[in-house]
Specification:
With about 80 residues, the chain is an alpha+beta fold. It is built from 3 helices and 4 strands. A hairpin with a 2-residue loop joins strand 2 and strand 3. The longest helix has 13 residues. The radius of gyration is 12 Å and the shape is globular. The mean pLDDT is about 95. Pfam families: DUF3253.
């Protein structure tokens, strides 16, 4: 499963109003302890691509973030208007 598909799959398993942490995606793709951290930047990049398509929304403290200007720090992923 690719990263974007994993994001969509995990969000699809949650309530429409729920969010996920990018680390949940990385851990789902690499369940071995300690093996998931290298996936964090690729997960953020895949999330940004999905956000540009309005399939997901990236937030920090309930504030919607520009996918092209995420910067460091914790983020959450939510379903967007084009989620599918």
């Amino acid at each position: 499963m690719d990263i974007a598909a994993a994001i969509i799959d995990l969000l699809g398993q949650r309530a429409a109003s729920a969010s996920i942490c990018p680390s949940e995606v990385a851990r789902a793709l690499r369940p071995d302890p300690g093996d998931w951290r290298p996936l964090m930047q690729p997960v953020r990049e895949a999330a940004a691509a999905l956000a540009r398509e309005d399939r997901i929304i990236i937030t920090r403290k309930d504030e919607r973030l520009d996918p092209d200007a995420l910067g460091p720090g914790p983020v959450r992923l939510r379903r967007g208007p084009g989620f599918r």
